[in-house]
């Protein structure tokens, strides 16, 4: 079997097979390659920071040495990752393999080789891992996930504005209800999703570099007078761009990860809700789907144009949320100062966010195919004159007419109501003539309140 066949048709996960191209942006960030890349970055930045700490035993590195070190990060390749994997076959320890690989890059450079034992100095593996995971999530959030969510928000905002004044019949409990506009219903989703997006963006990504059990034991054994806590904070916040967590066990306790994954789950849940609504609106004929030449909706029914993009989105959001929920619930739990259950679970961050990204892309693909069917919307409204029972009885209340709700209930509940029957009822009401004429002029398509204004404002 060829390697290309193994990477696609024989892939165990559809993220690396059928849908590989659609989640490609996450692959260099959240794969094992991405983890190795960030481990190298953290080791390099810690090493450089140690050289600047003022220790007599480790003088500041030259600019050439710093350039060489940081070049290992910027030019990190799959060949480098494979070299680390080859070392791991011997060490059976992934972080130690990174340390040994980095030291091997010092060969031929006397300055770096002389300082080689300061690589991974006073660090536990989790000092490297937790910062690396933070950097991975930072890159995935900033470079892929939020920009894709922003595309959805922008797309929906444009639709809300364009369709702000297009009336549609609401269906509360699946029954005809007071009309809205297509744009206002989309604006509701925009408002919810924008809030959820902000929650994702606001989560601070925490990290620690404080040794085997979080107390700087090893650090202080070497230089008891050095302010290691301030030093670690500076490396984490100034050099790595994360937020320092001063209180940890051997691992950073992952509460921020739970918060982040819960925030993604909330956004995905909103989009499941929207995907199902669009599916229903397509079924009602409110939306048409633009056909794509060559595509087939059914193997036996040639007429069908199925809403598969919204179905795919819903399914993938469900998978994402199942994984994200497990990550959120499991990761903050660790036996005593450390167990390894977090390590094996964290390797699935890319899977969880990959399914979310796949859902976002499917949803965007579906939205791009939608065309509003104003004729179907108008016909639906014209067959639902009973919805004017609400404004009529509300005006009756204003003018203190007796039993307005009960009279409209008797007239409309469970009955087929026409323009003629509703207007005949209005004519019997003892209302000021101007109010009566206003009600007689009203149609279901006019009775949309501030829907258009709200849609345009979102």
Structure description:
The chain has 458 residues and is mainly alpha-helical. It folds into 3 domains: 22-121, Fumarase/aspartase (N-terminal domain) (Fumarase C, Chain B, domain 1, Orthogonal Bundle), CATH 1.10.275; 126-294 and 309-378, Fumarase C, Chain A, domain 2 (Up-down Bundle); 384-448, Ribonucleotide Reductase Protein R1, domain 1 (Orthogonal Bundle). Helices cover 61% and strands 5% of the residues. The protein is built from 21 helices and 6 strands. The chain has helices spanning 3-7, 27-30, 32-51, 63-74, 78-91, 94-104, 110-114, 125-162, 182-202, 217-222, 228-239, 255-284, 308-330, 341-346, 349-369, 374-382, 389-398, 404-412, 419-427, 433-441, 451-457, and strands at residues 167-172, 175-181, 206-207, 243-244, 287-289, 370-372. A hairpin with a 2-residue loop joins strand 1 (167-172) and strand 2 (175-181). Helix 3 crosses helix 8 (125-162) and helix 9 (182-202) runs parallel beside helix 21 (451-457). The longest helix is centred in the N-terminal third of the chain and has 38 residues, at 125-162. It is elongated. Residues 1-5 have low confidence and may be disordered. InterPro entries: Fumarase/histidase_N (IPR024083), Fumarate_lyase_CS (IPR020557), Fumarate_lyase_fam (IPR000362), Fumarate_lyase_N (IPR022761), L-Aspartase-like (IPR008948), Pur_lyase (IPR004769), PurB_bact (IPR047136), PurB_C (IPR013539). One of its GO terms (molecular function) is (S)-2-(5-amino-1-(5-phospho-D-ribosyl)imidazole-4-carboxamido) succinate lyase (fumarate-forming) activity. This is Adenylosuccinate lyase.
